[in-house]
Design brief:
There is one protein chain. By secondary structure, the protein is an alpha/beta fold. It has two domains: about 5-150, Rossmann fold (3-Layer(aba) Sandwich); about 165-215, FAD/NAD(P)-binding domain (3-Layer(bba) Sandwich), CATH 3.50.50.60. Helix content is about 40%, strand content about 20%. The strands form two sheets. A five-stranded mixed β-sheet has the order 1-3-2-4-5, sandwiched between helices. The protein has a three-stranded parallel β-sheet with strand order 6-7-8. The structure holds iron/sulfur cluster. Iron/sulfur cluster binds next to α4.
Amino acid sequence: MSAEAASGQTVNGAISSGDRASGRRIGVYVCQCGGNISDYVSVDEVVAAVKNEPGVVVARSAMFTCSDATQQEIISDIAEQQLDGIVVASCSPKLHTFTFREMARRAGLNPYLYTQVNLREQCSWAHTDDKSGATEKAKRLVRAGIARTRFTLALDPLRVETVPRAVVVGGGVAGMRAALALAEIGLEVLVVEKGPHNVLVGPGAEEFARRHGMGLI
Ligand code: SF4
């Protein structure tokens, strides 16, 4: 492993000279995940396949895209290349969506102009016996991520006031368990049951509801 790779810095990439047909300036970062992706997907092939997609002005691979060093490189690219969209092709959005949204925010880019593409769980880990197939799938997923990014708009979070109250329809075991779970997180709960109250998990239902702050109708 090279010193650059060991530090998590960018190890391969391409920067084009300017805007393409879409008018967007998109950076694409394809992660190797220390071999978790690159052992089963040819990351360099993926970068080569997408670097001329409309709107792409930077396409690179990195050993560990979530590392501080690579995040800093992406932040520098956003400033120097005036990127208005980024695609990170790495792992599940469940893992790092907030990492990269926060990175975009630090770079002064609206966090919703970033798109996550999952190459690890959906390509490399899913197709360990078919590197060529996994690589082709990765190219298509990254192209789709770029296409999506071309249509992204800067968004501002909207705060909506809600009423902390819930209705549970049905007072059987599942309904009462759901009602209890909702009451435990502080919601006011109303259980609606078509039968008499004593069909609600047995004759102690009214006492159960009273103790847990639920209304019965
Ligand atoms: S961004 Fe995800 S895929 Fe890439 S190095 Fe970090 S954990 Fe691995």
